[in-house]
Amino acid sequence: MRKMSSTCHNAKVALLISIGFMGISGCASRRIAGPGIDSYVKMRWPRSVNVAGDDTVYYTYNPDGIRQLFAVDDASGNPVALTSFEDGIGGYSLSDDGQWLGITASTGGSEQADLFLMSTKQRKLEPLFENPSVVYGSVTWRRDSKAFAYRANDDSPSDFHVYLYDVASRTSRKVHSGKGYFYPVDFNRDGTKLVIGKYNSASYSQLFEVNLATDEIREITPQDEQWSFSGVGYAADERRFFVNSDYHSDLKRIHAIDLSTGSVTPVLAELSGKHADGARLNDDRSVLAVVINDDGYGVLHLRDTTNMKPMSGPPMTKGVVSNIVFQGDRLLYSLSNANTPGIVYRWNWRQAEGGGEAITSADTQGVDVSKFRLPELVHYTSFDGQEIPAFLYLPTNYRKGQKIPFLCSYHGGPEGQFRPSFNQAFQYFLSQGYGIIAPNVRGSSGYGKAFIEADNYKNRYKSVNDGIWAAKYVIDQGYTKEKMVAAWGGSYGGFMVMAVITEAPEIYGAACNIVGIVNFETFLQQTKSYRRKLREVEYGPLSDPEFLKSVSPIYKVDRIETPLMLAHGLNDPRVPVGEAMQVAVALKKRGVEVEELYFPDEGHGFAKEGNRLLYYQQMVKFFDQHLR
C-alpha cells in the first residue's frame, strides 16, 4: 500500500544549480518593508468543499504543507484529517448519500493516480486499485450510492476506458473501451444508463449514452460534426440531457439534447452572448446553476429547469465563482478575487434572501488581504490589430509616470485562461513595488471557438507575438521600460517565456520558465502517450518535424541574452524534465546566465509547500537582482 506520513511531509532536497547568481546580499537592501514571500506562500484556505446530508463538511487543506482530505462534524466543529499520504491527495468524490468517499492519490507528482475507497462512518482507507503505470480517476457516483464509474488506462497506456465499480461486491467491470480519452459524466435516475464523454481536443468532444444492461452505446451528440460538448447531466424528465457547447456558435452556451430526436437546443436565450464556463444541477434536477465567463470574471446565474426562468441568486462582489455544490435547499459556492481567498459560502436558494453564510475562512498569515488592490481589465492591440484582453496590476502607491519593474505572467494551457482570482504571489510582488500584466493571448479559453483555435498548429507564433505585445503595452503606457520587464510562466506559459525571450530579447531583463516546453519534437515524443494525440492537435504532429523545429525555442538559443531561471519537477509526466535540461546545457555552452532548480519529489508544478517556498524565495532574489 502507498506510503503514508504522520506529518504529511517528508522533506527532500531540491537541486539548485546557480551560474553567476549573486545571492541574498545583492538585493536585500532593495526590499520594501513588510511581510516576506514566506508569509504569502503559506497563506492557505480550504478547497474542494462539499457537505453531506448530516452536515459533515469535507474539504482539502494543507496545514502541514501537503494537501490532504479533512472533515468537520457539524456537532463538534473540530477538523479531522482523513488522509495522510506522503504526497497528498489528487482529489475526492462524495457519494450522494454521504456514506462513501472515492479518493485518488499519486506519488511525487507523477499523476499516475491510484484509487481508494473510504467509508465516512469508519473512516478507514481501503486501496482499490494501485498501479504505478496506470492513471485512475473521474469517480462519478451512481445516484443510489451503491456503485460508481471511473476511467483508467490499464488496458492501453494511450487510451482511457470507463469502468463500473460495485461497492457491495468490491468488483469492477468495463462498460466501454475504445481509442481515445473517455470518461464518465452522469447516471440516469435508476442507474441503468450512463453518459460518457470523449475528449478529442479543446474544441472537439463527444458524448455517448451506454445502456448498462446490454452494454450498447450510442452517440447523443451530432455525428459527423466537430463541436465541443461538455456534459452537465440528465434533466428531471430524462428525455433531455443538458450540455455546455459551442454548437453552431462561437461561444459556449447551455443546451439541451433531446435523447429521442438528437436535436440540440440552446435553453438560456438571454445569455446567448455570454460564454458559459459550465453548469451544475441540484439533486432532483429542478435547479440549474450556470457560471458565465464575463471577460475572465465568473458570474453565477440560477435557473428553474421546468421553464428555464431566472431565479434570484446570492448577492456577491465581483470575482470568480466556483465550487458549485447543491445540498438540499442550500447552495455552496466559492468566491475568489484579488482580496478574497476562495471563501466558500452556503446560501438557501428557496428563501433567496440575504447573502451567503461563509463556512470557511483563510489563514492569511497575519497579512491584511482586504487591502489588496484589484486588477484593471485592459485590452491592448497586438501586432496584427487583434485586441487582446489582459489584467493589469499596479502597486497601491503607484504614481503615474513612474517606471517600475514589471512581470509579464503567461498562463498555461494553452487553452487556459488567466482569471482575476486570489493570487498571493502576485500580491507579494505588488507589495514590493512591481507591476504585473497577465494577458489572455490567442489560444486562451473563455473567448469563443475562433479565439481558442487561433493559435493552433501553424499559427503558434501569433500567440507568442501577443505575449510580446503585452510587454510592449506596459512600456508604451509608461509603466516601465525595456530590461525592467520579466517573462514568467509555467507549462505552456513556460514555452511562452522561452519564445518571447528569443523573439524579443531586447525587452526582457529576466525570465523564469517553470515546467515549460522548449523542444516540441522531444516533448511530444516523451510526454505520456495518453496526452500525445491531444497535444499534436494543438502544436502540430510528429509527422511534421520541420515545423516543430521551426517553433521550438531550443533552436534559437543563440538569440537569448536574458538571464534565465528554470524550475522543474523530476517526475513531470506532462513536460518531462529533459526540456529544462536541454536548454540549460545549450545556454551554459554559450556562457548565458541560467539558474536551475529541480525537485525530485514533484511533477508538473510544485505541490509541497516547502518546495514552493524554495522556488519563490529563489525567484524573488533572481527578479530583484535583474530588474531593480
Q: Fill in the CATH topology of the largest domain.
A: Rossmann fold
In total, how many beta strands? 37
Count of DSSP-assigned helices: 10
Question: Which strand order does the major sheet show?
Answer: 1-37-36-35-34-32-33-31-30
CATH architecture assignment name of the largest domain: 3-Layer(aba) Sandwich
What is the first-to-last residue Cα distance? 50 Å
What structural category characterises the helix and strand content?
alpha+beta
CATH superfamily heading of the largest domain: Alpha/Beta hydrolase fold, catalytic domain
Rg result: 24 Å
Largest sheet: 9 strands, mixed
Give the class-level CATH name of the largest domain.
Alpha Beta
Shape summary: globular
Fraction of residues in β-strands = 25-35%
Helix content: 10-25%
Could you say how many structural domains there are in total?
4
Please, could you describe this protein's structure?
With 628 residues, the chain is α+β, with helices and mostly antiparallel strands. It folds into four domains: 15-40 and 367-627, Rossmann fold; 45-129; 134-219; 239-363, Prolyl oligopeptidase, N-terminal domain (Methylamine Dehydrogenase, Chain H), CATH 2.130.10.120. The strands form eight sheets. Strands 1-37-36-35-34-32-33-31-30 form a nine-stranded mixed sheet, with helices on both faces. The longest helix is centred in the C-terminal third of the chain and has 19 residues, at 609-627. It is globular.
